[in-house]
Design a protein that fits this description.
flat, eight-stranded antiparallel beta sheet, about 50% helix, 3 domains, alpha+beta, single chain, three-stranded antiparallel beta sheet
């Protein structure tokens, strides 16, 4: 045996790649073209939000992760999968539901899933499994996480208050606002830590994949990268308040507030990676080499791979066309809601109560009034939505009863309860708002979606999707009742009495608005 026979030979690339790879790239481009509005909406969020700016680097990272294992992929024969095309159809329907329900996150997750499923459709499941993590990493490009803001803010406030009391500092707290001897503080959206959390989980997941081979170690590190920023943000908030308190509010109250937060977060994350690297497992010990020539692979089914690609694009085009058809059936615009008729025992006035109005935006029409019965007063606010889209929709992360940065009103309590409304039992949200002492209000909030009542954001979106898919339009409304709240809880009794009188009138007004009367 001579020396040439001992020399390792390079792996032979399957000839099917010459057709399959350009076909996949073209399929991706056509998918992005068909669903360009969803893709551009994602890019727009990357551009204007620091929280989701990492979306720009996620696709290049995916391509790099695939490139680094290219020698393991080129020896595999690309094989089409019509089963993946069926799966693509299901994901496309999810995209359509997201569009008709104006749920941006669902549409964007579905778009990324369509790009992923196109891989097994054109290249086959064997190759798709080899690059499963790089493909799934694309989901981090979806701007998702705002839903966690209220809970993260609540946790941060509770931990900070607990830490201050443990430190011997007296605290008077209501909701997300609290007062200590040296000043008042409030937990706002920037204090939630959602930016730290998203960055940590994204980087931590990539680090776990590149550093460990064991699935257990990878999952444990991802869990750690999820928990550490949450706890670190609690500590950060407590430290900032303590620095402000001990310095007489000379430090940690302006720009340095944010600087201290990012410096502390950077130290914590670096420490997390440094500790995680101590249990490092290299993913690849060495690049695979062949010690003998590889037998030529079987001829790929090129024509059927092309057919699978064409079928994928046609299915995508079907859902895109369906969305255009649904959007084409737009109801005529409205200028105002129908008048709420006279209510037995209650006298209407044109002004609102305390000058307060829910922070809901971009509605088609609204009405607000106060109703008086003896010495009792109730406020009513209706916001009506029609022809909803990304900017004009009932359920949105930007819509709230009161914003966290509101200088006058603050939410200090919340819950749910069942009430009898328009001859049926419905569940409503209950919120306690505090204004300037001693002003407090009890607020009831719920939604009406084309004849259905709910207090749930999720169910409101589901009803909206069902209504639009069945051709019944997207008319929806927010109903808010509010009354002064005293120490005896009289506000609840006042709202209950008002609902008994006003329920049928509100229901009738909403139905008349739909009919254009």
């Amino acid at each position: 045996m001579n020396q040439a026979e001992l020399r390792p030979t390079s792996l032979a690339a399957d000839p099917g790649w010459r057709v399959a790879l350009p076909t996949l790239v073209l399929t991706w481009l056509l998918i992005l073209l068909l669903f360009r509005e969803t893709a551009l909406a994602m890019v727009d969020i990357w551009e204007r939000s620091d929280t989701y700016a990492h979306g720009f680097v996620v696709p290049p990272i995916t391509l790099w992760l695939i490139w680094r294992i290219r020698s393991r992929l080129i020896v595999l024969a690309p094989r089409y999968s019509f089963l993946a095309v069926l799966l693509f159809a299901g994901v496309g329907f999810a995209w359509l539901v997201g569009e008709v329900a104006a749920v941006n996150a669902l549409s964007q997750f579905a778009l990324v899933a369509m790009l992923i499923v196109a891989v097994p459709a054109v290249l086959g499941w064997t190759i798709a499994r080899r690059i499963a993590f790089p493909l799934l990493f694309l989901f981090f490009a979806v701007p998702f996480g705002d839903f966690a803001l209220p809970k993260l803010m609540e946790w941060t406030a509770h931990f900070t208050i607990l830490g201050l009391r443990f430190s011997g500092i007296p605290v008077h707290a209501e909701g997300l606002r609290f007062v200590i001897p040296t000043g008042s503080w409030s937990v706002v959206e920037a204090c939630s830590g959602v930016r730290y959390l998203i960055a940590s989980v994204t980087i931590g997941t990539l680090f776990a994949y590149l550093t460990y081979r064991s699935l257990t170690r990878r999952l444990v590190f991802v869990l750690v990268s999820f928990l550490v920023p949450i706890v670190a943000n609690w500590v950060r908030a407590y430290m900032i308040v303590m620095i402000g308190h001990l310095s007489g509010n000379q430090l940690a109250v302006g720009v340095d507030h944010l600087i201290y937060g990012w410096v502390f977060f950077g130290i914590v994350i670096l420490a997390m990676f440094w500790i995680g690297a101590r249990w490092r497992e290299d993913e690849f010990e060495s690049e695979p080499q062949a010690t003998a020539p590889i037998a030529p692979p079987a001829a790929p089914a090129t024509s059927r791979s092309l057919m699978a690609a064409v079928a994928t694009v046609l299915v995508g085009g079907f859902w895109s066309f369906a969305q255009l058809q649904i959007d084409g059936h737009r109801a005529p615009p409205i200028g105002q809601t129908a008048h709420i008729g006279p209510l037995a025992g209650w006298q209407a006035t044109a002004s609102g109560l305390y000058g307060w109005q829910p922070s809901f935006e971009n509605y088609a029409a609204s009405s607000q009034a106060s109703f008086v019965n003896g010495g009792r007063v109730v406020g009513l606010f209706l916001a009506y939505y029609r022809n909803q889209d990304e900017q004009h929709k009932l359920v949105s992360s930007t819509n709230a009863l009161v914003k966290s940065e509101d200088p006058y009103w603050a939410q200090v309590g919340s819950g749910t309860r069942e009430i009898s409304f328009a001859e049926q039992e419905i569940k409503v949200r209950t919120v306690v708002l505090r204004g300037r002492p001693p002003l407090r209000m009890l607020v009831w909030q719920w939604y009406w979606v084309n004849g259905r009542w709910t207090a749930s954001d999720v169910m409101a979106k589901a009803y909206l999707a069902l209504s639009r898919l069945t051709g019944n339009g997207d008319d929806s409304a927010l109903i808010v009742l509010y009354a002064p709240l005293d120490v005896d809880g009289a506000g609840e009794a006042v709202l209950e009495d008002f609902v008994r009188s006003a329920g049928p009138a509100i229901n009738t007004a909403l139905r008349q608005t739909v009919a254009g009367q």
